[in-house]
Amino acid sequence: MIRQTDNENRGTCHRLVLMARFFVVLFSLLSGLARAAPYTPHSDDQILARLSPAEQAVGQAAPIHSEADAIRNARQWIDTARSREDARFLGYAQAVLSPYLSSSQSAPVQLLQAEIEQYQHAFPQARLRLTQLLNKRPDEGQAWLMLANLDRIQGRFDTARQSCQRAATSLPPTTVIICLASIQSMTGQLEQAWSTLLRLEDNQQLSLQRSERQWLYTLLAEMAIQQGLNSEAHSYLERALQPSPNDPYLRYLQSDLWLSEGAHADVISSLQSWQDRDNALLRLAVAAKRSQHPDASRWREAYRSRLQDSQRAGRSIHHREQARFLLSVMDQPQQALQAAQANWQEQRELSDLRILLASAVKENDPQTLQGARDFMDKNNLRDVMAQQWTKEEQR
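Predicted structure:
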């Protein structure tokens, strides 16, 4: 929620929703990068990618004559990267910001660059940039909020809580309350966080911005899933999706809930038109395998081909998604565990914990299982899905 214009708020807000998100997270999704040798086209005429008409239209950006132009264009590119799940557009955002990064003390410029770095999982660079900004401008609430998110997704809950509190100097109380609730849900105060957010939702006198309300509904959906309250989770997901029906993070969260319930047809119906997106294709492959859908092998091979293409081209591999594919589609628990362990070194959200536990149980790795249980015990973390895997391991 970069507090400038509503349009500028959308990208970073989405990543903070993930605080269990609206910042990507969606601000995304994604760590433990694996790289192969750079891919060299066979000739100058070789087509590497085709832009849709919509993408071509987005590419016709206005000329950059000032820092304000750069901020506006970068915001557009980042929003496009998030909505289309296409990191190529982040390069355009960086290109328009780069002339102003070293000379400008502008908080919007530094915050946008930190957002790009967080999306790319360049966590140390994003953390350093935010810290330097806060040393000069300690009342920059959005920077504290982004720093809280970085700490939260990496399991540094004490410092994340402190950053949420520091944001109170310039951000609305509701924003701080939601930020703190997202930490409480991971640190033994799930019921308290749930009650707090329910009271916020019921308070008719509060005037929440649209992005804040969507963040609120997303967190309530995630907390409902933590508690095994699937009906409530579906209800809150529908409310969160109303203003943004094509929000990728929310669509995937909804699909994952359906997958946990065995509603494979709903997943396929929801995501079949999104086959050009890797995260959608992964879920289609999982749903198709479980339901013996006629397109199961096609979607499996399509996703595997994309992984191979990314490795050849030197693009980032998202280890969490890779682990899920290897475990749930390819039945390769050993390789899945390796990917999940690499991911755990960078990210420690609930989805990271769940795939780590699932892989460790299938591979029968007691050391990894103990480490995951220690993390849960240390933080008094309650999660129905994670607890199911720990019970499975004890059988």
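Summary: The radius of gyration is 21 Å.
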